[in-house]
Amino acid sequence: MIIWLNGTHGAGKTTTSTLLQELLPGSRIFDAEKVGETLMDIRPGLPATDNFQHWPPWRPLVVETARRLLEYTGGTLVMPMTVLVEHYWREISDGLDSYGIPLRHFVLHVEQDALRDRIQNDAVLGPSRFRFQYVEPYAEAYRTWLGDEAEVVDTTHIPPLEVARRIAAAVERGPAVGRDPR
After folding, report:
1. pLDDT band of 75, cuts 50, 70, 90
2. Cα separation, 182 vs 137, whole angstroms
3. pLDDT exceeds 90 at position 84
4. For residue range 109-131, what is the model confidence (pLDDT) as tens digits?
5. Judging by beta carbons within 10 Å of its beta carbon (0-12, 13-18, 19+), is residue 88 exposed, middle or buried?
6. 162 lies in a domain?
């Protein structure tokens, strides 16, 4: 199974994935950003883009890497990765489905004012122009498709450990009613 943690940059995906992995025996974290980093290291470089997700190989490579990891290790992959383009999400989720891989898609949602405050006052990274540039695209994706596509966990007022506990409990209960159990 794959537990995909989506949401904008600064929502708590990385922190939550670490805590969730500790709550789910036999699970592993796979950060699909590493696939993007591999593509960024190709020389000469691939066509210029502001986001490696725009490169067509990224999406099928994420699917294939996840499939191979699960084939090798079994268990559960926890994947913290922002995907805000609906077509890209469909490509990934349909690819995983084509291999029969169960997928639980969670969005860690943060109200915009709280999100901006988190980004501005991040004690580890400091204010991040990169993170700020995704606040509006996330809001648009959430409003138009993402909020309906995934199981939403509002992280605005709850700490990461509670977020991880809620996701673990949801996974233990089984697929969400009214949602595609992929």
Report:
1. very high
2. 25
3. yes
4. 999 999 899 888 887 777 888 88
5. middle
6. yes
Place of tokens 């969670």: 106
Which tokens hold the place of 44?
């000469």
DSSP 176: P
| 103, two tokens | 């997928």
Q: Are 118 and 21 in contact (CB under 8 A)?
A: no
Whole-number pLDDT of residue 178: 46
Tokens of 167: 């996701």
Q: At what angle do helices 13-23 and 160-173 cross, to 10 degrees?
A: 50
CATH number of the domain that 143 lies in? 3.40.50.300
Q: Please state the separation of Cα 59 from the chain's center in Å.
A: 13
The first and second tokens of residue 175, run together, are: 């697929």
DSSP strand E in the chain: where? 2-6, 27-29, 76-80, 103-109, 151-154
Residue ranges making up the domain that contains 8: 2-173
How far is residue 57's CA from residue 92's CA, in Å, rounded to a whole number? Answer: 11
The answer to whether residue 179 is domain-embedded is: no
Q: How far apart are CA 71 and CA 64, in angstroms?
A: 10
- What tokens does 15 get? 């922190």
Structure tokens, 69: 């990891």
Nearest residue to 120 (alpha-carbon basis) of 135, 109, 138 = 135
pTM equals 0.93
Q: Mean pLDDT throughout 31-57? A: 96
